[in-house]
């Protein structure tokens, strides 16, 4: 289902922007970059190193907390359907930071895991994440299979102002957002980051067990009291 929706969204983009490649050219003129990828393909390369891939297979529904299939490496982009099956959203987890506090907020279970995400709208329509109310959202799956939703425990009380974004992302633009998980020390030793879109399809990334990514220093600064 998601494969068909991505293809349909690409057609809409073609009508409004000639082709997705043309849109990318506009981004390049503005200094932006975008991985090379077909409208329905899954990239298999770190950002900045494009490599051709075949089309993604049909989405397979997965029970919450029990993701199946190969996970992407942390830092690899993945294209998914926007909220309400509108638009194409490209998501790239960029940084993970483990912390014992966020400002004056301490985790209920022992450790916060903060994950920053670069999200781009690749279609002629604004695109946004699917909310939990729509059957989507984010979760952290620990090595033992335990599943933790974003914003659990005291994570919802932790605020990183620089990454506090919500709502639709305008066509051809991007935002860096953050998801925070309240984890036990055992769960905060790496895991699998899972995003479920409105078609109940999952995108998964392996998360390193140590602070990783270009925004580590920036996130730590945001976490200070």
Percent range for helical residues?
A: 10-25%
Q: What is the overall shape?
A: globular
Which range does the strand content fall in?
A: 25-35%
Total beta-strand segments: 8
Major pleated sheet: 4 strands, antiparallel
List the strand order in the largest sheet: 1-2-3-6
The poorly predicted ranges are 11-68
Radius of gyration: 17 Å
By helix and strand content, what is the structural category? alpha+beta
Q: What does the average pLDDT come to?
A: 79
Q: What's the N-to-C terminus distance?
A: 45 Å
Q: Encode the helix/strand succession as letters.
A: HHEEEEEEEEH
Please characterize this protein's 3D structure.
This protein is an alpha+beta fold and 225 residues long. The protein is built from three helices and eight strands, in the order ααββββββββα. It has a four-stranded antiparallel beta sheet. It has a four-stranded antiparallel beta sheet with strand order 5-4-7-8, with no helix packed on it.
Care to give the gist of this entry?
The chain has helices at about 1-15, 20-30, 215-225; strands at about 80, 90-100, 110-120, 135-140, 145-150, 175-185, 190-195, 200-205. With about 220 residues, the protein is an alpha+beta fold.
Short key terms for the protein model shown above:
8 strands, four-stranded antiparallel β-sheet, alpha+beta, 225 residues
